[in-house]
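Cont'd.
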Amino acid sequence: MTECSKQSGSIPTCKHCIEFLMAYLDGELPASEKATFDAHMAACPPCHEYLRSYVASVKLCGQQRRGGSVPEMPEEMVRAILAAREAGGSGSSGA
Amino acid sequence: MAHADTQAAGVEADAELLRRLRTGESGAYEALVREMGPRLYATALRILHREEDARDAVQDAFLSAFRSLPKFAGDSSLSTWMHRIAINACLMKLRTRRRKPERSIEELLPRYSDNGHRVQVELADQHGGERPGAALDQRETGEMVRGAIEELPENYRIVLVLRDIEGLDTLEAATVLGMTENALKTRLHRARQALRELLAPRMGRISELGDVTRVAGGKEGLVS
């Protein structure tokens, strides 16, 4: 169990930084507030590491779609959908 | 350039398929199902996890699309439109099925001491895979990430899946979930924090992360 050791003056706390991390990454913070975040991140290795792993998690999520294989659609499913259309169906029938 | 060419070809193919559907050309509906079905099925599996539910949702999505085709204005591409319909069908399915017991999101969020310092308690690596400690290849990484996403409480998981995997923007995701944009952002941030907590003990084993330090943000920059 460790703690960030660098906090001072107008630099926001770790809690403040982490709570507003998404706004920070999305470029939604006012310039002055962003500058204090940058200062905190530069001075606080645990928060910097938190930021890195947060961003990495989001990127790994994105890879689920881009890098994931597209499953084959079972032929019976195709036939069930077309049959339901022919029958004028409007809901699932447990394809 | 090659990417742009592929995109242009996709748009053209979409337009041609739409024309065939609107003129009632024989085989056009089957072409639509065969062309878009696999990707919609993949989306449904990511949201619902269960094959049977995913099949039902995809079928519902196609039937809904067939009924709505005459009203399709072409504001988006046919594939984007179908993707949104499939997501709605999946959400309908989620609402009707019984929830499994799930852990509290609070367990997975950062903890702070009274003076605002984060108290680091990294979770143990509970998903060592077939080769505990070894670097993970792409398949193992994918499985690990899927497993971690599945551990999130459903209300958080669905927001993360829609925004960070299916690529909906904040407004679209908020609209399909009936939430305000601010509420969605708050929930998404908590979902990402929880996912980070689950993945952090295993990050060092992922060889394909690349340079994750380039995080200078623009709007919605993280998912592009």
